[in-house]
Every structure is written in C-alpha cells, then in structure tokens.
C-alpha cells in the first residue's frame, strides 16, 4: 500500500515538474500565437498587441503559470486562444477518440506480437523467421508517415474502407449495431497502420528475449529430459522472457494518448493528434500544455502498471527491493 | 566462421566502403543541378543495338517532349549512343575529406549522363545523392544510437542494481524526459544557434539531440532486466562469496543486458536516421543542397511523389538494406554471445 | 381506421422532420427586394463536399483569424457590398445602391428592404450600425478593425432611416467600396446581449447550438462534429434569386470535411469522396489531370495568382542590436548594384518550370500578369544573365579569387544565409535554386529552413538574419491593401522595419506615391501613379521578385456553375450558385 502512495506522490510531483518545465520550454521557443497576423499588411501592430494583452500573453512567465495553475485546479486547464474556449472539454472530447484508436491498436499489436515473436524464435533461421525479420526491418526503416500515406492511398482507391473521420455522414438513421459497424470500418485503416509499425518493434524484442532463454542450459536440459515444447514455453521460458516485454507494454500504455499523432493526422481521425499538432505549430500554449499534462498522466499510469507487473511476475524483485538499500 | 556470417560481414564492409568512398563510386557531384532534366527516370543501360552485342553498356540522352499540357515526358534520343567509360575523370571531391581526387568508377564522356537512380526535382543525380547522403546519415545514426544506448544502459544499470531511492528518482527523471514537449525545446535550441551550421556541426547537433532525448527508453528496458537478474541465485552466491559490486556487474549483470541492447541497437539505428526528417522541420537537420537520407526522405512524404516518381524511393530502400544488414549483424553477435555464456 | 391512418401520417411526418431534410427555399414575400442574378440557373437539391486541411476554430466573424474559419463563416454571412471574384469588381449585395459625395468622403448606402436573417428575423440599418460598432470596438481588437481606421481616424457610421446608412470617411479613400467585402453583417437580436455583457469574443464558438447563429449568407449551420466535419444547410431566406426568380442556393447542404493534409485532400478528391478541391500544387494538378480522362472531372488552371514571392535582404537599422556579423554583410546588401546583380543571376524560368511545374509566372515586380487591372506592362523582364551580373559586381568593386569565390571591395569572402519556412516546400525549392544560381557568381550561400514562427520572429522581431525567401500579397487586386508594405512607416515594410523617416530618396518618393494613389479616385490617374510606384520598386529592388504560382482548382464532373477565381475563396465564392448533377437533382429539376 505504501508503495502505491509513494508512486502517487511521485506522480503528482512529476506533473508539477512537467507543467513548470513546459512553461519554460514554451517560453524558449521563438514566436507566439498572433505572429502570422504580422504578415498581413492590413492588420496593425496595435491590434496584435491588444490581442496579446487580451489573452495575457504579454504577462511575465510566473504570472501566467500562476493563472494556469488556478485554472487547472478548477478543471479548466486554461483557455485555448484559437478556439476561444476552455481547454479541458476540447481535449477530453477528442481524448476519447484517441483512446478508442490506440486501445484497439494496442490490443491487436500485443495479440499478434507475442505469438509471432515466440514463433520466429522457435523457428530461428528458417524461412518464416527471415521473412518476418525482413518485414520488420522494412517497417522500422521507412518513416511512419510514408507508410501511412502509402496505405491511405491504397485504402482510398479500394473504396472498401471508410477513410477519414470516425462516422459517415449518413449516420443519422443507423441502429446501434450499424453505428458500431460504421466506426469499425473507419477504425480499420488507422489501426492497421499503427499495428504494423508497433508490432515490428515488439516482435523483435520478444523474439530476442525468448531466444535468450531458449538457449540457457536448464532449458536445453529440460528438453533432453523430454519436457514438451509447449510446457517448456509457458512454464519456464515466457515468465523469464517477460521482463523486457513488460517494459515495452509499459511504453505502449504510456503512449496511448501521444503515440498515434501522425496516423490520426494523415487518416483524419478526430482524436487529439490533429488538435495538438496544430496547437503546437500555432503556439496555442495552454492547449499544448493541457495535452502534455494529459499524456503525462498516461505515462505515469503506464509505467506504474509496468512496474507492478514486473514485481508480480518476478517476486524476487520486490523482496529484494525492500531489503536492499 | 560460417559462410553465412562471412557473407554478412563482407556485405557490411562493402556497404561502408561504398559510402566512405562515395566520391569515387558516384559519377557526379551530388549538388550539381541539371535543370533541364527534373524528375528524369533512371537511365536505361543497353548492351545491344543494331550492330549487335556490346561488351560496354551504352546510354542515350533524354529528350523531353511535351505530349500534352499535363507534363513533360522523357523519351530516349536514339540518334546517338554514348558508351560508359570506367575510371573516368569527372567532378572533384575530397577523399576522406583530405585527399583531392577526380577519379570516378564510371561515367559518360558525352552530353548524355548516366542517372542510375534517376534525378530529383532539381535534376540532381539520385544515385550520387544516395551514396553521399549515406555518409552522414549512417554515421549520425550509429553515433546517436551509441550515445543513447551508452547513457541509457549506464543509468539503467545503476537504477536497477541499487534499487530503492536511486531507482525511483532515476525512473522519475525518465518519465519527465519522455513527457516534455521537445519540439519547443528544439525550437529554442535552434533560435540560440547561429543560422548556418557546417555539415560537421550539424552532425554533432543531430547526434547530440537524438542521444539526449533517446536515452530514456533503453534505460527503462535495461533497468527491468537488471532488476530481475540481480537476484538470481548465481548473483546471490557470488555476493555471499564476497564479490564486489563491480565484479558482479561486469560478470553477471552486464551480459544479461546485451540481448536487449543489441535488439535496441538494430531498431534504433534506422529510427534515428529517419528522425532527421522531423529534425529538419525545425532547421536542425542537414540543409540543402547537402544530401542526407533524412532530407531525401522528406520529399517522399508527398503523395504525388510517391505515386509518380518511384525512383525517389531509393533512399528508403538504401535505409532498409542498411537496417537489414545491421539486424543480421546484431543477430550474429547475439548468437556469438550465447555460445560464450553457455 | 381513419384516425389510425392520420396518426400514422403524423408520426411519419414528425419522424421525417426529425431526420431533418434541408429546408426548402421560402417563397418570395411581397416587399422583399431580392437580388436577381440574371445569368444563373441550375438544379435544386443534393450536397457538395469539400475537404479542408484543418478544422475551423470559431464561427465568430469578428474575432476569427485563420483562413478556414473565414471560409466557413463566409458561407454563413452576407456583406453590404461584395467583390465579384470573377470580374474583380464590386457589386451591390445587401446594399442595393449607394451614392458617393463629390469629395469622395461620404457613402450613403440604401439597404434592400424586407430581407431576413437565416432565422427569419428581419434585417435593417440597426444591424448595420451594430455590426460596425462591434468591428471598431477597441476592446475586442478585431483584425478587421484596422480596415476601418483611415489616417488614424475611424469611419463614422450613422443610421439615416430604417434602410439607409451613411459612412463618413476622414478623407477620400480610393476603392472604399472594396472595404465592405468581408465585413459580415451581424444579427443584433442575437449578439447584442453578449456584446453588452463583454463576452463577445466567446460568442459563436464551435460548440454554439445552431439556433443561436444566424446570418445573411446562402447557408446556415446545421451540425458540427468535432474533428470530423461541419455541415451547413440551405438558408431558406437567402436574398438572391436566379434567372427564373427562384431563390438561391441550389444546394441542400454544403459539407466541410476535415481531412488532415493536402495529400489526403487529393486522395479523397481522386476517390470521388469530395467534390471540390482548391489551391492544388502543380504536382497534384498533373496527377489529377492524368486521371481526368476516366471520370471527366473539371480541372481549372486560372492563371497566375496575385501572390508574389521574393528574396528579401535585411536592410534594417541594426544599431544597438549586437548583430555585428549581419551588420557587416549589410554593406553588400545595401548596395543597389549587388541586388541588381543577384536579380540578373536568378534563373526565373527554372523557378517557374521546376517549382511550379510550368504552372506559374516569373516576376520582376510586385504586380504580376494575374492582376490585369493594375500591372505595369512597361517594366523590363530581362532573362537570366550571369554575364550582366558579373559586370555589375565588377563595377561595384567586387572581384574573384583564384578558386572563383567572390570577394567584396574589402577582400572579404561574400557568404550569407537565406532563411525560409520549412513547411513551404515551394519557397524552399526556390531558395535552393537561387543558392545554386548565386554559386555560379562565386557567392557562398546557405539555405536554412526554419519553422514558420521562428522565421517570423527573426524577420519581424530580432532582425537576426541575412536574407529570406518569403511571399506576400494575394488578398486583393487593388493596391490599397499593399500600403503597409511600401510605405516607409508601414508594418510590412519588411526590408527596413520601424523606419520613422524614409531611409532613401526612392523610398521617400514611393511613400508619396502610395499616399497619393490612396486618395486618387479616378482609375486612370491612379493607375499612372501606381505604375510609377511599380517602376521604382522594380528598379530599386527592395525585394528581388522571383515568381508566382497559378491558381489551380478542381471539381468533380457533377458540379455545375463551377467558376474558380484567383481571389480567395477560390472555389466557394459563388457557393450560392453551385449545384450538383445527379439522379436526385435531375429528377427534381428546377423547382
């Protein structure tokens, strides 16, 4: 219990630290929200200065941070300059969609990666292993954006999937089942892209750690004693090979909100991605910081889950942890 | 050593030799623009003509014809053929940055040029650009990976081995690192630096930035491994026998991390090479007209380029080849290490 | 039984309205002064879909700053006087006629009688006065406020009677009518309260219910799905009618889809999911043109735009700024012969060919061939000549060392950087081509792409740059919007910002000419003055003009009355006239 309390305290301190550093970083970056109006010869600098004052952009850093903290405690998380609306509702409405996308992708990624990693480790050096290695090399090397555009082009031309958005325009008359079907069709492409790119990384790690265990003396011995492959796998190999996989799961969970940004933008999925990307580029500060805080929350949560799993899977860690320094 | 390992090593050595001596293997300077030939498809090599089979391949010049008002199309000008010469004198380059030379492996003497991988939007030879671009990209990718893995493993080992408060604070720092808006930090860094950075400075900047941001993940992975391996029976036994921390780290803990580190290495090198694409958006990448796989991959992010000019995909192909070779190398190291520890 | 049948009918009707079919145009009422477009005809019904790169941020016409918000708002709102994008001339809109006083300082506008907002509420002079009060309110800081301040004094707006409004300008202003385009008329009955309560900036944000928004445009808000699309439906009270005196617009619905990137826009258009695409790059245009034979979509190349792209040198006063390195290079930049040499060395033909895929035009001045009304045809258009460039440099005291590098009169190597926006691939390409051209003169030029706002910061704020490739213009054909670029004290006087007095004699003359043309009401005289201004600009090269892209747009074959223009909004400016051909509309025919 005290462990969880410690982690909670750590989480709060982390969020405070992240928020403070965010403000410092955004101060470092040149430019501000109303800069593109300077290029318009028909707008005077007085108007721009007036707008900056209206949104408090000309206040010193400490004052702005203080105001934002107050607003955060009121669950508003500041005010978006572009949308002229409080940040929290903007973020939350889109965070739901992002979680739907990345959650589904996470599920499929792990459902595919673990069996595939184990399989290729078992059949090391054979055709399947080589093919998978080639494919994963390809997926890691080519930038995600390029893969996304290529797959988008294929999907659009095939006319099979619904591309763009989360719902079709004629969604009015649909029953619940039809709505779910509609969303699923829209989900298909972005999930596919995400799964492709993430599976490549995880398969590699799973394969490597399974391989490592498969080649230890006790496994060799057990095999010679006639222990069946599957029993060996599930009772001996997997638990030991689990450690890097659990850390990776932690990363996957941590990146639930932030990892799908590029895919959302390219596929037009109405998640946090397009919102945060535009806000970052246009310096809509509080929206950006709000998004970062939300992602940091998931980061902390994901790592917590990973650590708890680590300790559960290998109880020796926890025991040693309490009596070592 | 087995034949497979030998071929792998030979392939890697060949790749690096070609990149290192790019000036020799590439027929042209990577920045020379042939403005009358933008987006020209790869030059076709011919061995046979009306006179019969030739030992030396020859090429034809490109002729542009505006078939419709849509775009110019390239047709071979069959009236003249230009044989390829080997060990030809061409544009100047600096071998290893010191020795000035004009010798090229192959090229043409006549007005026709040999564009093995076609040309880009400025009419620059894509083949030459891929070779020269690989120099900085592969070097930057490897260096950045080494930095990130070194820092990550050191910190991960410390966190995992000593546990407790050390572990908690280091992991808190990694969480902080992974949450921060690096985009703004990078913009701030860019604003702080002088406008023009020489290629060397850009290289250090690239590797520094990527390494700085990239240590957090390997650290967490390594820490996980160390946590589970430090309480193995053999470690406890060694401790009971009075082995020092350093001995245990070197003999038992470190080898346990190699698997993860090697896997990470094979994953990170291509990732970091491609990361230059994002960095160049902030002005921190290699600038035009210098070639690098990163800034060539940026042009691939347009749909029209992907569909119309397939030959511009060659830097991605080169990156994939490099990645495959390095993955195979990591695998070889892996099995070598296993045979050492078993 | 009969009761049951009636009940069923009622339920069906009720259900039908729940599914919200687009409202039919309201039949014309007596006393309603409608605007008849005598050349327009089309088919009623259907919907048009257009893909946008991002979503609008607000529906508030007074505070919106980004282009997409303005594009959507423009369909919902109406103006007093509109600029017809095809002819580029003003035409009456909500104001059916107007009288200008002989001194050009007073405009008396007659409003159309009997017009209603999209919620049925009548429109009259009170709405006009309210709208202008809001636009000119200092506390709101509307970007459009500055249009209404001439010479530091605001325009006076007075209501003369229920349908007459007088505008008093502090001094005569040429093309004053053009100011009214884009100043949407606001509904006083909906916005007066938020204004008086001081919450005007929060009014009409995206989550406002559609019943709280009303305008005089062809469409009204139906539905907004965050991150996905915004759907507009026909305004049943719209005040324009077509040739057969049928109320416009033809479309039942206009849908804006947020597709994310330009590539996604092209792909969705190719697949037939969107009907209109605007501002294509030439590569995408050629891509679509190759598919054209299959689906007979309409692609239009409207010719050169009004935008001008240029190479800018930092001629700012850097005293007290600690930018010694840049200041040292300004000795070269300030020399006219240096700039002339660079202009002679630039290969504009290649820029048009390689950057714009031949769909563009080279520029030697700020007014290009797209602006037929104002272009000065007598400005010379010399082709690239490295020889001329070398001669100019030699005569200015420059020389070359043994490796062919250029040395200035003090024997320092000529080396500088050109900054440009990393997100604008066309300008980046231009910079690379220029860099290659200048290397033939022995100059060491570096291209430095920067993130957009970082670029703006350097050009407007810190002045820490040598040269930049940027673009301006495109707003309107009239010279007045350019005042701030060419006036010495102007805020867009990029090469030398913050001048209190013109720094050079030619800038002084340019200043006077711009001031003069602003108050000259006669077109011929004004053109003469502006011609001279263009001559000075082209001769003294504060900007080295490079080129301008063509406006490229496309629509699917089922879209009718598609007339893209070179002024923004390129394809939707006549959204009230657009119609779609298809089984539904062809069956319905003209109502």
Q: What do these coordinates show?
A:
The complex is a heterotrimer of chains A (325), B (342) and C (591). Chain A is mainly α. Chain A has a domain at 95-282: Orthogonal Bundle (MetI-like fold). Helices cover 75% and strands 1% of the residues of chain A. In chain A, a hairpin with a 4-residue loop joins strand 1 and strand 2 (85-86). In chain A, helix 4 packs parallel to helix 12 and helix 6 (144-158) packs across helix 7 (176-214). The longest helix of chain A has 39 residues, at 176-214. The two termini of chain A are 19 Å apart. Mean pLDDT of chain A is 84; it is low at 320-325. Chain B is of the alpha+beta class and 342 residues long. Chain B has 2 domains: 43-114, no CATH class; 131-341, Orthogonal Bundle (MetI-like fold), CATH 1.10.3720.10. Chain B is built from 12 helices and 4 strands, in the order ααββββαααααααααα. Chain B is elongated, with a radius of gyration of 25 Å. Chain C has 16 helices and 26 strands. In chain C, strands 15, 16, 17, 18, 21, 22, 23 and 24 form an 8-stranded mixed β-sheet that branches. In chain C, strand 11 (219-225) and strand 12 (229-234) form a beta hairpin. The longest helix of chain C has 18 residues, at 523-540. In chain C, 53% of the residues are buried. Residues 7-19 of chain C have low confidence and may be disordered. Chains in contact: A-B, A-C, B-C. Chains A and B meet through helix 1, helix 5, helix 6, helix 7 and helix 9 of A and helix 4, helix 5, helix 7, helix 9 and helix 11 of B.
Would you kindly provide a brief summary of this structure?
The complex is a heterotrimer of chains A (325), B (342) and C (591). Chain A is built from 13 helices and 2 strands.
Supply the CATH architecture of the largest domain in chain B. Orthogonal Bundle
CATH homology-level superfamily of the domain at 95-282 in chain A: MetI-like
Mean model confidence by pLDDT of chain B: 84
What is the CATH third-level topology name of the largest domain in chain B? MetI-like fold
Largest sheet of chain A: 2 strands, antiparallel
Look at the helices and sheets of chain B and give the structural class: alpha+beta
In DSSP terms, counting alpha (H) and pi (I) runs of 4 or more, how many helices of chain B? 12
- Could you name the ranges of chain A where pLDDT drops below 50 across 5 or more consecutive residues? 320-325
Number of strands of chain A: 2
- N-to-C SSE string of chain A, H for helix and E for strand: HHHEEHHHHHHHHHH
CATH class of the domain at 95-282 in chain A: Mainly Alpha
**Principal-axes shape call of chain A:** globular
Q: What's the Cα radius of gyration of chain B?
A: 25 Å
Total of domains of chain B: 2
Percent of residues of chain B in beta strands? 15-25%
Low-confidence stretches of chain B: none
Order of adjacent strands in the largest pleated sheet of chain A: 1-2
The greatest interface here is: A-B, 68 and 61 residues
For the record, what is the CATH homologous superfamily label of the largest domain in chain B?
Answer: MetI-like
């Amino acid at each position: 219990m005290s462990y969880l309390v410690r982690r909670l305290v750590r989480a709060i301190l982390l969020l405070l630290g992240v928020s403070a550093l965010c403000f410092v970083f955004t101060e470092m970056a040149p430019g501000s929200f109303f800069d593109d109006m300077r290029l318009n010869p028909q707008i005077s600098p007085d108007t721009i200065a007036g707008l900056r004052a209206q949104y408090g952009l000309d206040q010193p850093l400490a004052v702005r941070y203080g105001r934002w903290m107050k607003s955060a405690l009121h669950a508003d998380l500041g005010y978006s300059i572009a949308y002229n609306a409080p940040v929290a509702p903007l973020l939350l409405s889109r965070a739901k969609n992002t979680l739907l996308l990345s959650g589904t992708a996470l599920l499929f990624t792990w459902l595919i990666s673990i069996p595939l990693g184990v399989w290729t480790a078992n059949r090391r050096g054979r055709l399947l292993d080589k093919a998978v290695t080639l494919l994963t090399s390809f997926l890691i090397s080519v930038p995600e954006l390029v893969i996304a555009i290529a797959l988008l082009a294929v999907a659009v031309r095939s006319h099979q999937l619904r591309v763009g958005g989360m719902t079709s325009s004629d969604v009015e008359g649909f029953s619940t089942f039809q709505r779910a079907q509609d969303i699923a069709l829209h989900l298909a492409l972005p999930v596919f892209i995400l799964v492709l790119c993430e599976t490549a990384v995880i398969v590699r790690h799973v394969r490597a750690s399974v391989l490592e265990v498969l080649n230890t003396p006790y496994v060799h011995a057990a095999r010679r004693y006639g222990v069946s492959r599957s029993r060996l796998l599930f009772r001996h190999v997997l638990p030991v090979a689990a450690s890097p996989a659990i850390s990776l799961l932690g990363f996957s969970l941590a990146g639930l909100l932030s990892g799908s940004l590029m895919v959302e933008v390219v596929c037009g999925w109405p998640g946090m991605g397009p919102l945060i990307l535009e806000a970052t580029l246009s310096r809509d500060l509080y929206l950006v910081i709000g998004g970062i805080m939300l992602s940091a929350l998931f980061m902390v949560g994901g790592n917590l889950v990973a650590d708890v799993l680590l300790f559960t899977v290998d109880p020796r860690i926890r025991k040693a942890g309490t009596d070592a320094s | 050593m087995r034949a497979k390992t030998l071929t792998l090593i030979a392939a890697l050595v060949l790749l690096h030799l070609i990149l290192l001596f790019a000036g020799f293997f590439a027929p042209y300077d990577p920045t020379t623009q042939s403005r009358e030939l933008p987006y020209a498809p790869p030059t076709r090599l011919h061995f046979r003509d009306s006179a019969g089979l030739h030992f030396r391949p020859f090429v034809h010049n490109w002729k542009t014809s505006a078939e419709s008002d849509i775009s110019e199309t390239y047709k071979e000008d069959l009236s003249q053929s230009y044989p390829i010469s080997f060990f030809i004198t061409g544009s100047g380059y600096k071998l290893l940055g010191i020795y000035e030379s004009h010798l090229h492996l192959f090229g043409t003497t006549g007005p026709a040029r040999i564009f093995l991988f076609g040309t880009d939007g400025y009419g620059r030879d894509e083949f030459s650009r891929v070779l020269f671009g690989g120099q900085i990209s592969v070097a930057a990718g490897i260096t950045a990976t080494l930095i990130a893995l070194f820092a990550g493993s050191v910190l991960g080992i410390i966190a995992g081995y000593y546990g407790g408060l050390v572990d908690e604070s280091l992991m808190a720092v990694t969480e902080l690192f992974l949450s921060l808006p690096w985009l703004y930090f990078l913009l701030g860094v860019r604003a702080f630096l002088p406008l023009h950075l020489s290629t060397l400075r850009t290289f250090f900047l690239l590797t520094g930035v990527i390494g700085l941001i990239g240590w957090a993940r390997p650290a967490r992975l390594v820490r996980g491994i160390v946590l589970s391996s430090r309480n193995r029976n053999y470690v406890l036994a060694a401790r009971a026998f009075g082995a020092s921390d350093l001995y245990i780290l070197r003999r038992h803990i470190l080898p346990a991390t190699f698997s993860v580190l090697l896997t990470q290495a094979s994953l990170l090198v291509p990732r970091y090479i491609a990361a230059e694409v994002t960095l160049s958006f902030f002005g921190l990448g290699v600038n035009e007209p210098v070639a690098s796989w990163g800034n060539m991959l940026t042009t691939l992010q347009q749909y029209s380029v992907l569909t119309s000019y397939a030959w511009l995909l060659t830097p991605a192909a080169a990156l994939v080849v490099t990645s495959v070779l390095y993955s195979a190398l990591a695998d070889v190291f892996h099995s070598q290490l296993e045979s050492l520890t078993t | 039984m009969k009761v049951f049948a009636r009940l069923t009918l009622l339920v069906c009707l009720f259900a039908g309205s729940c599914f919200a079919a687009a409202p039919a145009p309201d039949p014309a009422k007596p006393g309603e002064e409608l605007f008849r477009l005598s050349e327009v005809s089309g088919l009623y019904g259907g919907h048009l879909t257009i893909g946008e790169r991002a979503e609008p941020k607000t529906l508030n016409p007074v505070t919106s700053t980004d282009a997409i918000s303005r594009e959507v708002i423009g369909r919902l709102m109406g103006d007093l006087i509109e600029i017809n994008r095809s002819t580029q001339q003003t035409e009456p809109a909500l104001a059916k006629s107007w009288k200008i006083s002989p001194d050009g300082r007073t405009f008396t506008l007659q409003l159309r009688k009997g017009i209603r907002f999209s919620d049925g509420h009548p429109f009259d002079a009170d709405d006009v006065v309210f709208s202008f009060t809001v636009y000119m309110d200092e506390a709101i800081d509307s970007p459009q406020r500055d249009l209404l301040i001439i010479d530091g004094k605001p325009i006076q707006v007075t209501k003369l009677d229920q349908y007459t409004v007088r505008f008093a300008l502090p001094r005569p202003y040429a093309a004053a009518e053009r100011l009214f385009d884009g100043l949407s008329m606001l509904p006083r009955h909906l916005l007066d309260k938020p204004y008086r309560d001081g919450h005007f900036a929060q009014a009409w944000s995206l989550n406002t219910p559609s019943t709280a928004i009303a305008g005089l445009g062809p469409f009204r808000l139906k539905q907004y799905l965050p991150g996905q699309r915004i759907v507009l439906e026909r305004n049943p009270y719209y005040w324009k009618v077509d040739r057969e005196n049928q109320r416009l617009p033809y479309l039942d619905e206009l849908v804006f889809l947020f597709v994310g990137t330009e590539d996604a826009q092209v792909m969705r258009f190719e697949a037939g999911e969107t009907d209109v695409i605007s501002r294509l790059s030439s590569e995408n245009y050629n891509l679509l043109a190759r598919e054209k034979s299959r689906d007979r979509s309409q692609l239009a190349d409207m010719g050169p735009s009004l935008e001008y792209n240029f190479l800018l040198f930092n001629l700012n006063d850097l005293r007290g700024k600690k930018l010694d390195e840049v200041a040292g290079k300004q000795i070269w930049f300030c020399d006219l012969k240096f700039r002339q040499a660079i202009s002679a060395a630039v290969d504009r033909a290649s820029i048009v060919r390689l950057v714009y895929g031949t769909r563009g035009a080279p520029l030697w001045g700020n007014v290009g061939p797209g602006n037929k009304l104002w272009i000065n045809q007598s400005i010379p258009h010399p082709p690239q000549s490295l020889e001329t460039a070398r001669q100019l440099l030699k005569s200015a005291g420059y020389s070359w060392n043994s490796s062919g590098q250029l040395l200035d009169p003090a024997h320092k190597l000529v080396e500088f950087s050109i900054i440009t926006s990393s997100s604008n691939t066309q300008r980046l390409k231009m910079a690379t081509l220029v860099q290659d051209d200048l290397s033939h003169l022995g100059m060491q030029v570096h291209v430095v792409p920067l993130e957009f706002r970082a670029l703006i910061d350097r050009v407007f704020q810190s002045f820490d740059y040598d040269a930049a490739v940027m673009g301006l213009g495109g707003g309107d054909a009239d010279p007045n919007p350019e005042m701030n670029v060419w006036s010495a004290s102007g805020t867009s006087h990029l090469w030398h910002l913050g001048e209190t007095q013109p720094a050079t004699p030619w800038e002084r003359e340019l200043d006077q000419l711009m001031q003069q043309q602003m108050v000259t009401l006669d077109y011929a005289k004004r053109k003469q003055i502006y011609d001279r201004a263009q001559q000075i600009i082209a001769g003294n090269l504060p900007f080295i003009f490079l080129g301008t892209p063509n406006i490229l747009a496309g629509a699917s074959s089922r879209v009718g009355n598609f007339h893209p223009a070179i002024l923004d909004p390129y394809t939707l400016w006549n959204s009230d006239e657009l119609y779609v051909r298809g089984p539904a509309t062809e069956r319905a025919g003209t109502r």
